[in-house]
Amino acid sequence: MSQPRPRGDDQSLMHIRVKRNKTTIFLQCVPSETILQIKEKLEELIDQPVNDQRLILMPNYQILDDHKSLAGQKVENDAVVALTLRKDDDEFEEVNIERPSDSLPPSEIAMTTSST
């Protein structure tokens, strides 16, 4: 049984791209969802507690506040959001978003695959 589609401008469906290392997760959401709600969705997917996640709006590196909505922090449809996780020393890792090797220009692919 599918859930009803949200109505109204504030509730129109959108998606964000959550990136970490070489992984991209496409999340469907609505502008009124809080960052905490987004982290709860991610927890189900990546098995990391919400307290160990930090979401950062790219490209300006704005750390997103758990208690504010996507719209309230100007997160727009198709936004790129970096995910960082808490390390053993209780600090968060640095943002690391890698492009897959298949997106490199042909000359760079040739350099990375040559066996000289």
List keywords for this structure.
116 residues, 5 strands, disordered N terminus, 2 helices, globular, disordered C terminus, 5-stranded mixed sheet, alpha+beta
Q: What's this model, at a glance?
A:
Helices cover 17% and strands 24% of the residues. It has helices at residues 35-46, 106-113, and strands at 14-20, 23-29, 53-57, 62-63, 79-85.
What does it look like?
The protein is an alpha+beta fold and 116 residues long. Helix content is 17%, strand content 24%. It contains 2 helices and 5 strands. The chain has helices at 35-46, 106-113; strands at residues 14-20, 23-29, 53-57, 62-63, 79-85. It has a 5-stranded mixed β-sheet with strand order 2-1-5-3-4, with helices on one face.
Total strands:
5
Form type: globular
**Largest sheet, spatial ordering of strands:** 2-1-5-3-4
- Poorly predicted residue ranges: 1-9, 108-116
Mean pLDDT: 85
The ordered H/E elements are EEHEEEH
Total helices: the number is: 2
Helix content: 10-25%
Tell me what portion of residues adopts beta-strand conformation. 15-25%
* Largest sheet data: 5 strands, mixed
Topology:
Layout (H helix, E strand, L loop, with lengths): L13 E7 L2 E7 L5 H12 L6 E5 L4 E2 L15 E7 L20 H8 L3
Parallel strand pairs: 1-5
Antiparallel strand pairs: 1-2, 3-4, 3-5
